[in-house]
Amino acid sequence: MDQPVIRYIFSPTLNNPIFVQGLPGIGNVGKIAANLLIKFSGAKLFAELYSPYFPDYVSTGSDGICRLPRYEFYAASMENNDVIIMTGDTQPSFDDVVAQYYLCSEIIDFTIKNKCSLIVTLGGLPSSETEPKVYVAATSPRLVMELIDKGAVIYTKGRVIGATGLVLGLAKEMRVEGACLLGSTTGFQADKGAAFTVFKFLMKLLGSEVKESL
Q1: Does pTM top 0.90 for this prediction?
Q2: Which residues of the chain have pLDDT under 50?
Q3: Model confidence over 160-182: pLDDT tens digits?
Q4: Do the beta carbons of residue 25 and residue 31 sit within 8 Å?
Q5: Beta strands in the chain (DSSP E)
Q6: What domains lie within the chain, and their CATH numbers?
Q7: Per-residue confidence (pLDDT) for residue 208, from 0 to 100
Q8: Are strands 178-185 and 118-126 parallel, antiparallel or unpaired?
Q9: Where are the beta strands (DSSP E) in 4-54?
């Protein structure tokens, strides 16, 4: 394998879906929030992406069977929106800039092919604050204001690293609207509380409300 490969399990029927990405990162906030959305929506796995840009290891399950690291794509039809949810085992090294750009470009191509109307990336933001907050950045002033009206705080502190930020920047260049939702977290361990805060805000963006716990 010398190029990324997307393997389809089936082709879902979706209408202008919203694309949601949550990968491992700070506090694992993005990945946990994406998994909550998969569980809540009953989304089904329909495609997998494998790439030589991922780290050189395999994952093993409880049955001892190994597999390559991958990104997974899930599809669901919710009450107000269809969604594609992407999560995965890992990201390329942040030091490997070419790999990051290459894979994020593959993701943008995937969203365009599937006629996604909006891209939302999820992640964590290191913070010493005790009050849970969701910070946002977006590709347009209109979208920023819409998110502020829903209770988010503008992220003004500089960089959003990894695929959480880069996918958003590439989306803007391709004239695809997008936003990132960053949950404040200490970042020292998997932060389920911050992930749930991001998930609840995401559900508000998707036009649904959730209970205080799952």
Answers
A1: yes
A2: none
A3: 888 999 999 999 999 999 999 99
A4: yes
A5: 5-8, 18-22, 44-50, 59-60, 66-67, 71-77, 82-88, 118-126, 134-138, 153-154, 178-185
A6: 5-205 (3.40.50.10900)
A7: 76
A8: parallel
A9: 5-8, 18-22, 44-50
